[in-house]
Model the fold of this input.
Amino acid sequence: MNRRSKRKFDVLVVGGGPAGMAAATRASECGLRVAIIDDNPALGGQIWRQGMQSTPDPDYSTWAMYVQSAGPELIVGSAFDQPSAATLAVEQADGTYEVAYDELILATGARERFLPFPGWTLPNVMGAGGLQAMVKSGLTVTGKRVLVAGTGPLLLAVAAYLRKHGADVIRICEQASWGSLARFTFGLLDQPRKLTQGLSLKRQLAAVPFTPNSWPVAARGQSAVESVTISRNGRLEDIPCDYLACGFHLVPNLELPHLLGCRIQNGCVHVDEFQRTTAANILCAGEPTGIGGVELALVEGQIAGFTAAGRFSEAKDLFGERKRLKQFARKLDQAFRLRPELRSLPSDDTIICRCEDVLYSQLRRYASWRTAKLQTRCGMGPCQGRICGPATRFLLKWDPDSVRPPIFPVRVESLAFAASPVIPEQPTLTGGL
Amino acid sequence: MNHPTYDVVIVGAGIMGAACAAEFAGRGMRVAVVDGDSVGSGATAAGMGHIVVMDDSEGQFALTRYSQRLWQGLRAELPAEVEFDQCGTIWVAADDAEMAEVWRKQKFYKQRGVPTEVLDAQTLYQLEPKLRSGLAGGLLVPEDAVLYPPCAAAFLMNRTQKRGAKLYVGENATQIGQGHLQMASGLEIRAKFIVNAAGTASAELTPGVELKKRKGHLVITDRYPGFVRHQLVELGYVKSASSSTGDSVAFNVQPRRTGQLLIGSSRQYGAEHKEVDQQILARMVQRAQEYMPGLAQMSAIRIWTGFRAATADKLPLIGPWPGDDSLFLATGHEGLGITMSLGTAHILVDHITGRIPEVPIEPYLPSRVSQEHAHA
Amino acid sequence: MLEPVAITVNGVSLAVPRGTTVAAAVVLAGQPCRNSVSGQPRGPLCGMGICFECRVSINARLHSRSCQILCEQGMDVTTDE
Done:
């Protein structure tokens, strides 16, 4: 039986990654009643996911400590709908709850972009971040041959991590050109921290061949990937491997901002200098406002947290640092643009929609995402278009459809929350205010 | 000035327009179809795709039965993506009063040659073990079926185009009548016959047509093959569907070929916006869970709404529109559009070409309502 | 110290360190998580709970996203239900 309780917070933060942690910390420190919603009981989001065998990232540890002492509440659940103004429906393990807010901070982060190519659906072909997440969750890769491919700085971080955990990282294949990468590296000169990180990675990966202008054109194998064909400077090469870790940079998670009516421009949530969106009382910080990495997310999160607490001068103090980090974000975006050749990767019988096994040939005949969806069911599966959406946007230049609730699959019973009796909020025993 | 000219132009490329187009083209006529969106994207895309005989009235029965048989006749030609599945319907009886209704229906159908089987409680649970305990039984109608409507409409439209018909999509018709159809772009199409198969938009194009929008909600789950084997409908559904006022929900669950479950149904008058109505959705889901508790823990992937075109007397409008020799209607099918599409197309084309339709067209003639207007 | 947890994957016993997700365990067992709608073997892709390729049955509960679920002692995991 579904029970419903309505809870209210001064500031509600959706997403427990760096931006969310920073926002919730600052808002709590200002004396407000704050909660973070995330479906993971451990904070950190994706980039700060804690591995079983690794030492925690020092920045994560620092912010975890800040969050702990600032004391926002953690609601473990999935925000899937907006039942009424200034309220979110959150599905938790034991029921669905309506959570009301005065200010909402969206810190929903990003996910990897996947581009289809023949064989990409074979087991052990995973995202770059995907394989890293799996290793953090107990997949041992000692002595396994791993090919890392795709685009973006994530490839290097993943390659270094896998190597540290015993994998034989055969090669890193980056689709960007030497020129793009050189410009990007040169552009790091005014980002000392990034440069240090980059140099450290370079040292860790000294023994791993790194090739730009290269990308996977096919993965082969019987019940799992056994080899990958790489195109490098126009030449094809077959590389045997146990895992292919392949991701093409990141795309922001825009479903909740979209549902809540925030204006989205060029694939990002539009915000003003105080991280406020066009929707009343809704702010946004981190990757959804533009892919820019951890440090930018931390700064934007803090600005949002301060703004939500009405502390505009504290927010302004961070504008300079944000500006600097935004420059990095712009360079990132430019350096790792997808080259047009990647549009010819899928063949007619390559699966584009993995949930419904829809082939490229089936999709190409339609002029819009919506028509293709109705006729082929592409995007109608449980991933709700999160995997095939960015791919079709790149391949076919389709505009995304409107977003409808639930923005994430939920239990059928959770859809009946509006009919459940409301339980009055119990006073909770928390230390201090 | 160039006016494309056809024998017939059809407004609406939903299941109704596509079925009519296929029938006209099949009889050798030159056909054009106009739709402001894409094929099968309106109510056709929103509905359950249930092909069902109904016994609310003789007129409803005749057309649903005729249509159901036409779908049967077509099934061998339907491509896999139409997902035609003759899973049958079970009308579920919760108590003795509803069992009496089961027997009444059985008799009605038997007299008219529709095979059915009365199920006692034990047999009901053998066929559908996931129904909650304590039910009285039901009526199985084995010749009912389900399909995936957008692909069915596309199939019929493709067939029509192969016979040379022209499809104008992405642009609305703004004015129709007297052998002319005006498009938003200014293009004028001329035809001897115009068929208004525009669903809820029919009244805008033909003033005097009275249709109400009846909003519905549906939920689709992830794949749970074998959980439900037939389309299951509570007998209270009939009360819900045939009421002229108010909001109602009724238990209605469909197994798709994919193993996904479609959960419905709801009806609202006067709700014009397409956003999900939380209260109605909640009631609908609760009703469904009452009949099948196992639904509660299933993964719900999508919710959507749609608008049925409803007439006051619950029968569709099929046939000539009085006062305009060129204009015909094929609209107002409420929740039976998919079922009735083929039958509607046949009787309309028969009527226009001077053949005697297999099912008399009289109960559906638009003149029945416009006459009432004249007398009012 | 990460003490082992014993689960079964398609009837075969497997011991993994505590903190291992079911998805990782299934991949370690050399099994695909599921068969796609057209019958292809599939394994985890995104590792973060959004691609749904890692769905398995855990203790008879269908469509469990195994990359988000930690192995617990005695779990009965079956792939492609």
About this structure: Chain B has two domains: 5-47+149-210+314-375, 85-143+212-310. The domain at 85-143+212-310 of chain B is CATH 3.30.9.10 (D-Amino Acid Oxidase; Chain A, domain 2). The interface with chain C takes residues 222-224, 258, 297, 299 of chain B (CB under 8 Å). The first strand of chain B starts at residue 5 and ends at 11.
